[in-house]
Amino acid sequence: QGPSRFLFRGRLLRAAQRLSPWTMFGLPARNIATIVALGGLSLVVVIWLLCSAARSSLCSNVVNALARIAHAVRSWKRAPADEVAVEAQKRDRKQKVLHMQRICKVMALLSLPINLAKVFQCVRMDARPDTIAHDAVVFVLHSTLTVTLVLPRAVSWRTIDVVYCTLVSCAALFVAPPPISDAHDDNLISHLIGMNMIVAALAVARRDVYVVLPMNALFTLASGTSMWVHEGPYLTAPAFVFFIQCCTMLMVTGGACILDSTWRALIYEGLAVTAARQLLSAATGLLRSCCDTVVEVDSEGVITVPAHDLGSFLLRGPGYNLHGYRLADLMVDAEDRDVFQDRLLSKKEVCMDMAESIHVRMRDGNNVVLRLQLLFLRFTHIDDSTRYMVGIRGNFPGLGEHGGQDGLRPLAPGSDGEEPTPRPSSSGLSVVTPAAADAMSAASDLLPVLVVDCTAPGFPVVECSVGFRARIGRVPPSGMLLDAVKHGTLFVQWLQHALHSMVYGAPPPDDCEVTLRVPRSGVVVAAACRVLRVGSAYDAARAPDGQGPDGEHGAEGPDIEDGAEGAAPLGPDALRRVELVFLNIRLRRAGPSHQSW
């Protein structure tokens, strides 16, 4: 062990003798420690890069990135594929113009002290080392910034490239070597730092690679040439400074391209989400126009929205929340529940271009079984989960809809199959024939129409249209209209006046402003009520054998004159179906004092 210990000590002494010349030539121990630390860290980074390249094909990824950049440069003029991409491109251009205007405004304001300093220097007659070419470059630079500050509209999508190229070219000429720029060695670094900040800000504002890349290359070439020319005591290592300059411009160019693609993707996704939301809202509104209520369920049939409309439709009370309930649990029959679940779980991979329909039965809050039709269409939610938009439409024979061919009545004998047309009276009203009445009923199915029986106390509701159920609410069985109308006495007087005017040809009264409460929904409806039609007005004036009052066959109804003494009033059968339409509907939350069905 003795000889080996002396051998190790000798090796340490020889190593110290080898390091001693470094300290003699200006490398103290602190510099040696720095070299060892930074060199070790750099070595670790290089080893990690090599291992990553061998493990994850880093070189191929770099090549793919360069290929994508080249593809972007080649296809920057290619037209977008869809409408959302076109709108995203328009908004991206507007944002680039806006950012360029703001950058130019900020630079114009920051250049104000510099301009004042130069003016003060000229007033004092100080010696100025700048050449005439340098003064011309500075004048063009500040003139461009001033124009963009005073006239922001001068920067548009047509002129944005001209403004950008002018400013970057002036920055490149500002740091260019003589004879264009005769800057001293002591202020070259400050000029380089200032111009690099300006070029970087302009690149971030412009962002398109086909413009930013060549202009940054031009500025890098001009600054590198100036560095080699001004090599001296103030710039001892121009190659190292030029390397830093190149790295800086590469980072600025890459950052601008990444920012451009990210910004464009964000605009596209935002527009796509907005378009999808508007499309979903339009689809929901379209479903509401033909359905009583619309809910949203997931692939398991669980309701994902509060579904207050469905709770009101089922007469469960005001503000009834069905969020988290299974829609199948509201169905009466187990067979309907199985069919509904099978439809939700089958063929998820097939795109649905039409809504599917099934018929089920549900029970409302009055323990009445409702025969309903379910229309559902599958879509993908924002979290990539499968959702279904379900429209629920009721078919109530007792509180019915106008049912297409069900309400048609045969024409009178001798009409030769031609449909009679309504004949106007002197009061401006028209007597509606049966066929025209059925057509009117079919056309007004989407209007909020309520059919009441005016012969019974309280005006019981006979029918309600789909539009009434969609916009106002469903009427419970045996519901009384006067139980929900505020100021019922005034409403009865107005209705009697309106019916009297229709019978005797007097001018009809104005629309009645009524306030009623939607059944068990906690919503008050304010609307203008108007008598649309009396269902049996034409039949009451006809003879039982299908002939008119003069004994001749005819399809035209009686001509009711103003104040005609022989005009027979409407009988009880005619007043059993009085159609009321509600216009200018306004909804608001109900207070505890409002009455309801």
From TrEMBL:
Organism ancestry: Eukaryota, Sar, Alveolata, Dinophyceae, Gonyaulacales
Organism, as annotated: Alexandrium catenella
Membrane-spanning residues: 32-51, 159-176, 188-205, 210-229, 235-259
Segments of this protein annotated with the region Disordered: 403-430, 540-568
Domain of life: Eukaryota
Protein's UniProt name: PAS domain-containing protein
Keywords for the protein's UniProt record, in alphabetical order: Membrane, Transmembrane, Transmembrane helix
